[in-house]
Amino acid sequence: MLRVDGVPLHVLREGSGPAVVLCGGLGMAWFDWEAVVALLAPDHTVIRFDRPGLGLSAPAPGPPTAAAEADRIAHVLDALGHPGPATVVGHSMAAFHAEVFARLHPHRCAGLVLADGSLADPARPVLPRAVRHAWAGGVAGAASAAGLPRALGPVGRRLISRAGALGPHPAHPWERTTYRTSRVVRACALENAAHPYQAAEVAALRPERALPPVPVTVLAAYGGGETPRELRWLERQRGLATELGGRFVVAAPAGHLLMADAPDAVARAVREL
């Protein structure tokens, strides 16, 4: 446990070699990366941490923002004594954090892998951020008062995992312990509420702060189907790679939780930067 920006965070550092930071998507925990860590740790220093309120980390006092999460990556590296550049892997919504980290801390970034990353929408959300944050916190508080996290939290996590992955992946021993807490359920609700605002942040930052001249790979998950939705997603991911001047790679067969379905593809993307 490390205190970063005043918040006790659960941080893991494994292996030795060039630093790689693994950032999970909305509501995810450190153990979602286990298969990727096993592949990278022999020749990389692999760093992963639970964002505030998630996994084993304490909650933060304010709502999450893309800039704050990008700064958090830099401050975790500082706390671990890694002043040099690091490769950052951002999955789903954490692709926002990885990209903003590169734009705000260009000298700290060695490369980016955006793993089935969320896409930035330039349209501004309708509700003020504070209103949506308060609403999400209120819903989470009511659910906690009713005892729903303890009763349904782990079940909801398993349902989401099964929907996002193609293969059967057994529950991690810590899954039930963490997702039955009101702290984690509240953090998930707040991250979900913050998603459109973080997307707007990224879209607004792109014309203001250029990416540093580092390699970028957009790794898109593809389950093998031919539905318009799946094909459109691949094209939008390809468009993201073009916009960022990066390489477009498809991980197949894989669902959105590609670190579970295709950990070798994630590790290979890091090594091939």
SSE blueprint:
Elements lengths: L1 E3 L2 E3 L1 E4 L4 E5 L10 H7 L4 E5 L16 H14 L6 E6 L2 H11 L4 E7 L13 H17 L2 H17 L10 H5 L2 H24 L10 E6 L6 H16 L3 E5 L6 H4 L1 H9 L2
Helix pairs in contact: 1-10, 2-3, 3-7, 4-7
Number of distinct beta strands: 9
What summary fits the major beta sheet? 7 strands, mixed
- Secondary-structure-based class equals alpha/beta
Provide the helix percentage.
Answer: 40-55%
Tell me the series of helices and strands, N- to C-terminal.
EEEEHEHEHEHHHHEHEHH
Distance between the termini: 30 Å
Question: Mean pLDDT, rounded to whole units?
Answer: 93
CA gyration radius, whole angstroms: 18 Å
Strand content: 15-25%
Spatial strand sequence of the major β-sheet:
3-5-4-6-7-8-9
The 3D shape can be described as: globular
Number of helices: 10
Unreliable residue runs: none
Describe this structure in words.
The chain is of the alpha/beta class and about 270 residues long. It contains 10 helices and 9 strands. It has a 7-stranded mixed sheet with strand order 3-5-4-6-7-8-9, sandwiched between helices. Helix 2 packs across helix 3 (about 95-105) and helix 3 crosses helix 7. The chain is globular, with a radius of gyration of 18 Å. It holds the Pfam family Abhydrolase_6. Keywords: Hydrolase. This is Alpha/beta hydrolase. One of its GO terms (molecular function) is hydrolase activity.
